[in-house]
Amino acid sequence: MSIDTGRQASRSVEQATPPWALAVKRNGSTFGLLSLALVLAMAFSAINPDSYATLLNVESIAFSIPEVGLMALAISVAMTIAGIDLSTVAVANLTAIFIAWYSRVGVEQGQGQLTATLIAVAGGLLIGVLCGLLNGLVIAKLKVAPILTTLATMQIFTGVAVAITRGEAAYGVTDPLSSFGYNSLLGVPIVFWLFGVVVVAVWLLMTKTKYGVSSTMMGASRTAAEYSGIAYTWVVTRTYVLAGLISAVAGLVLVSRTASASAGYGSSYLMLAITIAVLGGANPFGGRVAVVGAALAAIVLQLIASGLNMMGVSTYIYQIVQGLILVGVFVVAFERKRVSEAISRRRRRANAQTSQTNQQKEHQK
To answer: Residue 77 to residues 64, 205, 334: CA-CA distances in angstroms?
Structure first.
């Protein structure tokens, strides 16, 4: 009776709460990041009104977000199942190198610009899928820890990229790719539109499909998920394939924007991508979908980078800021988990004591 009464009271409280308040409560992290982005934009605009609050700077920020934002999204997806993907930058570089290489070779062999572009992009995305598949199979079948697996494959993919290019940059892309990387649609860079489409697609996949629910359950509790009939190998393999595919899209954006690719490009992106994923709400312990949060966190970090750059602050200071943000978010995550576990233990003890008291009263009667 007491449990039912508590549930009814909880429902009545929710019904009495205004819809907007419930939305804020359920999406506190998202609203927090939105608020932070607005505060940062206003603060930097006040400091540098002639340069920060301009259409040119907004466009520059929008061009810069997709690359690292997509990498952060790949890491966030992996964290949903309590994993991590350290190979995302290496996969993006390997994809970019293939696209740049085939763009040149395809045109030289007489293929049309569009045909060479489509083949290059399809091949690049396939590389991302295969790299993700390798990560997933090693983790799921060989039971190697995700951090060790992806650290090893990061070195492998980078080594392959260096071997292919002989350590040199690959230059040249087709006209369609160049237009894709530099042009805008309705005043917004096309690459940012692509970023938005990928975010929406991944959000739908992770929240509205059987796979998404299964991956979240697997991250929250592998034991409970397996008792529910969810196959560990099935979920892990698909998760890393998805992460590899997203990383390949990041490589596509990279090569279309720079018209070049190299094995060492974006060496600082990995730490930045991890920071964005964690700031966006991804739980390193798993069990939480943070797709929209990752996108907003990418915007927040780019706002900070642009603002500090206009203030003449050294890039090394920005790296320190990234590190402090990452440490701070990790501390909050660990403390939140510790407090949650402590509250759960207290509730179990209280329930046990209540049950024992009720049994004693029944015996006395």
So the answer is: 21, 11, 20
